Structure formats: C-alpha cells, structure tokens
Amino acid sequence: MNPSQINSLTPNPAIGYLMPSNTFNAVEEEKLLESILKQKVGSLRRNEHNLNTQWDVQLSYLLSTALANYEFERIGGGNFATTEF
Q1: Which of 37, 66, 67, 84 lies at a C-alpha separation of 20 to 30 Å from 78?
Q2: Domain residues of the chain, as ranges?
Q3: What is residue 18's predicted lDDT score, i.e. its pLDDT?
Q4: Sign (positive or negative) of CA dihedral 24, 15, 40, 75
Q5: Whole-model pTM above 0.70?
Q6: How far is CA 13 from CA 6, 7, 18, 23, 46, in A?
C-alpha cells in the first residue's frame, strides 16, 4: 500500500492502527522479548515455587521449528504439526 494512502486513513477509535517503522529491527526486538520472557519465567519460578531455572540453548534451537509451525497453524490455519503438538 502506498504510504500516502496509509497516512490518509482515519483510525477507528475502538481499534486504531500502528504505522510501520523504518527503524524496526526484528532480530533485536526478538532478542529483547526473549530476554524479558526468560527473566519473568525465572523470577516466577524462583519467587513463587522456589525453583531454579536453566535454559538449554540446544533444546531451544530444536524446538524453534515446532514453535514456528504451531504459530503458523494458529495464525494461518495451516497444519504442519501432528496432534502431539
């Protein structure tokens, strides 16, 4: 869509819209969100359940494909995973 067309749109007050950013760095944003999530999960486990948390990079790498497929299935309606996922 042409940027001038996007700028001419009037957002619905109940919904609104976000303009794409030219400075958006998806890789850095993903790393930041992952770091925040790890901190929150670790904090919850430590404070409420008195458990230590260790993150396995190899397992994370192996599960990333399954997670991507699951997200695609939920968003796009495709079916890449079996019922176990």
Answers
A1: 37
A2: 55-85
A3: 65
A4: negative
A5: no
A6: 16, 16, 13, 26, 41
